[in-house]
Design goal:
Blueprint (H helix, E strand, L loop, with lengths): L3 H8 L4 H6 L14 H7 L8 E8 L5 E4 L17 E5 L7 E6 L4 E5 L5 E4 L15 E5 L7 E5 L5 E4 L5 E4 L13 E5 L13 E6 L7 E10 L8 E7 L6 E4 L29 E14 L4 E8 L10 E12 L4 E8 L12 E3 L5 E5 L7 E4 L5
Antiparallel strand pairs: 1-4, 1-12, 2-3, 4-5, 5-8, 6-7, 8-9, 10-11, 13-16, 13-18, 14-15, 14-17, 17-21, 18-19, 18-20, 21-22
Length: 379
């Protein structure tokens, strides 16, 4: 059995990061030549909550599953014994395309182009004529509690089993359609014989959206304009979707209660820095827990701990940028406002935080510079 990670990457279909998102238990390799199998191999969990993708099902001798009339059949098509699901097509067109629906992380349902569900009569075990005992019907209009299960045979073929453990068998390996041929049987299981060529199928892609990247950390860079953040000031950032704030700057005079359960995210630091005028604090990295596939907002808050003769402070932000790092190490900028030069231009200020207006909130975006949506805008 080929290693899933190595096979996927060597075929060039996906990156190591895509596989790292989730490796399924039942899917052990990829399908030759088509990206639809990547959907399956990446993880059925990717398509959880009844997510879908589409493709054709090919038998061992190159024929395609064919839902007669696009589905809707549970008995004879025309004449005694005609089947609802044939295997006599050599080109995949509309009635050869099925939608795969993942109701759980490992099992799936097949839906015809006409919107009907493929079902195995009695949960499998049928190989007779196409009447009420027909092995396969396409007349269910809603999902039943009997989805199918894929199992990988090698790097190019899978078996399809009913929930009762019976295999779908393409009679003679495919090529059947019409009366009394019963193209698909469901009367083989591990007790009768091992799955052979007639029980092995290939999937040919119609479409397959790759799952979005999962961002696992952020890098934040802030520059100060013409009013500094003193040593006794504390500065924290909060991201929507995260349970705890992040410490951008500690204080030498006090701590916050912005962590989980009222704990501190910035420990007291007697050597806390002074963010002087026209300086940058450099870039700081913070983990995201949980990882995120999209971003909403980030807020930056000035928490003041004045002591002695010092009063309340004001802090001018000259520029701020945020880069999101995914689990492949790729960086995407989700905020980029202001400048990071060290020139003494007092007007180069995007937000002035004070004791009375101490928080500014930014809208984050993967396809724009972002913007201030609340709090001081400008100086």
């Amino acid at each position: 059995m080929k290693n899933l990670r190595t096979t996927l990457i060597n075929t060039g279909f996906v990156s190591d990061a895509h596989i790292a998102r989730a490796t399924p238990r039942r899917f052990k390799a990829t399908l030759l030549r088509c990206s639809w199998w990547i959907c399956l191999a990446l993880s059925p969990a990717t398509f959880a909550s009844a997510q879908t993708t589409t493709g054709a099902i090919q038998t061992s001798n190159g024929h395609y599953f064919y839902a007669v009339n696009g589905g809707g059949l549970g008995g004879p098509v025309s004449g005694l014994g005609s089947a609802a699901l044939n295997t006599n097509r050599t080109v995949a067109q509309a009635w050869e395309i099925f939608t795969i629906v993942w109701p759980t992380s490992e099992k799936f349902e097949l839906v015809t182009s006409g919107g009907d569900f493929v079902t195995a009569v009695n949960g499998g075990g049928v190989g007779g004529p196409n009447d009420y005992t027909s092995p396969i019907h396409t007349d269910a209009t809603a999902a039943l509690a009997t989805p199918f299960v894929f199992t990988m045979v090698d790097s190019t073929h899978v078996t399809i089993q009913t929930c009762d453990g019976y295999y779908l068998t393409a009679n003679d390996g495919g090529g059947f359609g019409g009366a009394n041929t019963v193209p698909i049987h469901t009367d083989v299981n591990s007790a009768t014989r091992a799955a052979g060529a007639w029980e092995q199928f290939t999937f040919v892609a119609a479409s397959c959206p790759l799952p979005p990247p999962v961002y696992t950390s952020v890098k934040v860079t802030v520059s100060t304009a013409g009013d500094d953040a003193r040593q006794d000031d504390e500065i924290v950032a909060t991201f929507s979707g995260q349970s705890s704030a992040m410490c951008l700057k500690p204080s030498n005079a006090g701590t916050d209660n912005w962590g989980p359960g009222g704990t501190s995210v910035c420990p007291l630091n007697s050597n806390a820095p002074d963010w002087g005028n026209w300086t940058s604090d450099g870039t700081q990295s913070f983990p995201l827990n949980p990882g995120q596939t999209a971003f909403g907002t980030m807020s930056v808050t000035l928490i003041q701990h004045p002591r002695g003769l010092e009063g309340w402070d004001n802090w001018n932000i000259q520029g701020i940028s945020v880069d999101a790092i995914d689990n492949a190490g790729n960086s995407t900028r989700i905020l980029n406002l202001g400048t990071f030069t060290t020139d003494s231009n007092y007007g180069a200020c995007i937000s002035r935080l004070t004791n009375s207006s101490g928080t500014v909130t930014f809208q984050l975006s993967t396809n724009s510079a972002g913007q201030i949506i609340s709090g001081p805008n400008g100086c």
